[in-house]
Amino acid sequence: MMSADAPAVSSVDRSVVVAWRNAVFAVFALNGFALATWMSRVPAVRDSLGATTAEMGWVVFSLAVGSIIGLSSASHVLAWVGSRRAIAGAVIVGSLGLAVVGLGAATAGHPVLVVLGLALLGGGMGCCDVAMNVEGAAAERELGRTVMPLFHAAFSGGTIAGAAVGALAEWAGASTALHFSAVGAAVVAGVVVSVRFLHLDALGAGTSSSEEAHPGWRERLGMWADRGTLLIGLIVLGFAFAEGSANDWLALAMVDGHSVTNSTGAVIYGVFVTAMTVGRIAGVWFLDRYGRVPVLRATTLLAVVGLLTVIFVPNAAVATVGVVLWGLGASLGFPVGMSAAADDRRTATARVSVVATVGYFAFLVGPPSIGFIGDAAGLLRALLLVLVLVALAGLAAPAARERT
């Protein structure tokens, strides 16, 4: 359900908008593929490092720190070099980090290289995350219909492919150095081609759109005092925590908590991202028919039921059903939050940056908090923290109501 601010007729040639939309799809998908490459091999990296659950929490914490740095600098980078160069540069940095992680894990479990690589990976992906969501919101407005969940479905589709390749690499005993380096090179090549078709920089060159494309620091700072923006940020925070905790810990939680093999854990992570992809594709119809608030409340319920099943049912097969519900429930919070933040064309970029920053706080506090709790009470019980934050996000759902 699009905002009343969305244009009835695009100001950009239709063929340009379609190419723009397709390029955004590609950027989202390639980023998902890169992220899942790391996530699907977490158990292998843990084994290589010989780390405890708490120690892995600190290792993954470097990914979160890098993400926050990339995220907080993204609006400035966008203003300095434009969206195309920001996305391309961020992906190059992130892919280099991925290769360093693979090398560190493959060379007798070198923790310094792994931590450094994860920081670079997080920094690149954090910056790219803001830039591609701003591009997606602008393309959505030009199209005049809901597409943001589909962009995020493309991200999930990329994670499905990345998880599948990761599971295959784990099964085949492939070196993380070779696996991560090959994926990084492929992702860079795909993004460099795709950014040629992004169009936000061209819109920003016009007088009427320049402030929207590159808001000043006073405008960005002012959005931090806006109650509605912060409540949307809370929604994104809760659902990002639900998604991010699965990315960081689901495979390991299934291995340690439900006694499955490493390769099975990678497959179950693939089940999660598949459910998220289905939820994002189907969610467009539900959003257009019922609106954001009812859909967010329904997905909150799905996520809560799924998490309870994973945590408390001592059967791997039934827990996998819970993983499906968890994935469906976590699927729409982030993209709906991005669309809600971008409802006001004039402040879209500033609000998206604030909401994304609040949401990424989940990636900062999530890995170590779950790791610490998991070390004391087990990873499954640690997931209760995710359940609480998802419930709070559901309570904040009215903040995402469509503007009329």
Automatic annotation (TrEMBL):
Provide GO CC annotations from the record. Answer: plasma membrane
**Transmembrane among keywords:** yes
**Cell compartments where the protein resides:** Cell membrane
**Pfam families of this UniProt entry?**
MFS_1
Q: Which domain of life is it from?
A: Bacteria
Which stretches make up the Major facilitator superfamily (MFS) profile domain?
1-404
Q: Which CDD domains match?
A: MFS_MosC_like
Give the main location.
membrane
- Where does the sequence pass through the membrane? 20-38, 58-79, 86-106, 112-132, 153-172, 178-198, 228-246, 266-287, 299-317, 323-342, 354-373, 379-400
Question: Which of UniProt's keywords are assigned here?
Answer: Membrane, Transmembrane, Transmembrane helix
Q: Which GO terms describe its molecular function?
A: transmembrane transporter activity
InterPro entries (UniProt xref): MFS, MFS_dom, MFS_trans_sf, MFS_Transporter
Which Gene3D superfamilies does this one have?
A: MFS general substrate transporter like domains
Its placement in the membrane is given as: Multi-pass membrane protein
What PANTHER family has UniProt attached to this entry? BYPASS OF STOP CODON PROTEIN 6, INNER MEMBRANE PROTEIN YBJJ
Report what the protein is called.
MFS transporter
Q: Which organism is it from?
A: Cryptosporangium phraense
Q: What is the lineage of its organism?
A: Bacteria, Bacillati, Actinomycetota, Actinomycetes, Cryptosporangiales
